[in-house]
Amino acid sequence: MKNIKLIEVPSEIGAGTRGASLGVDAIKIAALDFMSNFFVHFPSEKIEVENKLLFEPIQSPYAKRIHGMLTLYERVSKAVSDSIKSHFFPVVLSGDHSTSGGTLAGIKMAKPKSKLGAIWIDAHADLHTPYTTPTGNMHGMPLAASIGEDNEECKVHELDDKTRGLWDQLKNIGKISPKVLPEDIVFISLRDFEKEEKALIEKFGIKVITTSEVRRHGAESISRKVLRYLSDCTDIYVSFDVDSLDSSISRGTGTPVSNGLKEREAEDLISKFMQSRKICCFEITEVNPTLDKENLMAEIAFNILQRSVNILMMN
Questions:
Q1: Which of these, 63, 123, 74, 129, lies nearest to 103 by C-alpha position?
Q2: H/E run at residue 118
Q3: Per residue in 223-233, pLDDT tens?
Q4: Nearest to residue 76, comparing CAs of 54, 52, 101, 42?
Q5: Where is 76: in which H helix or E strand?
Q6: CB 77 within 8 A of CB 89
Q7: Element (H, E) at 117
Q8: Are 137 and 92 in contact (CB under 8 A)?
Q9: How many CB atoms lie within 10 A of CB 79?
């Protein structure tokens, strides 16, 4: 039986739309509405965040609030690493997806010899860098930071020295880079990405499983396929961005995209992954209740969280 520890990261400094910092509390409210005492059962740690930077002028237009992001990467990676070293399974509930680079760093810091895999269930590739970003929002960059990639071949921006220095620190957090190799990443339901990200996906041959493949083959078959593809990995991290869900249900997130997963498809798929002994960390991110009706997105996220944790505890 796994000991679960919840790590709450109510940060939204990496997002372009406001409100994701409220996602963690929205999920807790969903639990209360379902009369569940889930959040009483597990030890939890709340990471101190830097949301005050949202009120300050932006210094690095191509990596907005990157100095705050570096602080968060340090805090999140330490919390995740300490949890794993203390034999806890970290379940991370984060505001925006940018801090997942810190999650990956923490796993690698706790298990430096591990061959780490990442299952990225997300409408977006999150492979932008400060050199290629169309927005400067850092929730589009965590995977690029984690594979230690600048993507200079597709460069559109010149960076000032300070931004470049901070980005290099971000990639090297925990003094390990890369955290994960591109061939050990699997995208699920990826469908909205820019040509600069596509160039990296093609360059490294990163595995992409589409929504229609999930629908055609079913959760059981897809999970087997993914775990077989990552069979060389000793540890696997699952990152679930709620915008992987179809925009008809994922209104409560900053960047909804059509042709996504149905709630049940995501839940079944993640549940299947959680049965694997190699899964070492699970993250749910990008719930934004300010964009939602009746807290629907948080309720879906909570259902997935509860079912996943139940499976982890049975393993």
A1: 74
A2: strand 116-121
A3: 999 999 999 99
A4: 101
A5: helix 66-85
A6: no
A7: strand 116-121
A8: no
A9: 22
Q: What is the pLDDT of residues 31-63, one digit of tens each?
A: 999 999 999 999 999 999 999 999 999 999 999
Q: Which CATH class is domain 4-314?
A: alpha beta
Pick from 133, 146, 246, 261: which is nearest to 197 by CA? 133
**Res. 250: pLDDT tops 80:** no
pLDDT in tens, 115-158: 999 999 999 999 999 999 999 999 999 999 999 999 999 999 99
End-to-end Cα, the chain, rounded Å: 6
Token pair 């055609």: residue: 216
State pTM to two decimals. Answer: 0.98
Average pLDDT over residues 173-184: 98
Name 182's Cβ contacts closer than 8 Å, sequence gap at least 6: 147, 200, 204, 205, 206
pLDDT of residue 215: 97
pLDDT at 185 over 90: yes
- The pLDDT value recorded for residue 257 is 92
Name the amino acid, one letter, at 30: A
**C-beta of residue 124 within 8 angstroms of C-beta of residue 242:** no
3-state helix, strand, coil in the chain (%, to 5): 50, 15, 35
Domain borders along the chain are 4-314
Burial 167-176 (b: 16+ CB within 10 A, else e): beebbebbee
What angle, 0 to 180 degrees and rounded to 10, lies between the N-to-C axes of helices 211-229 and 263-274?
10
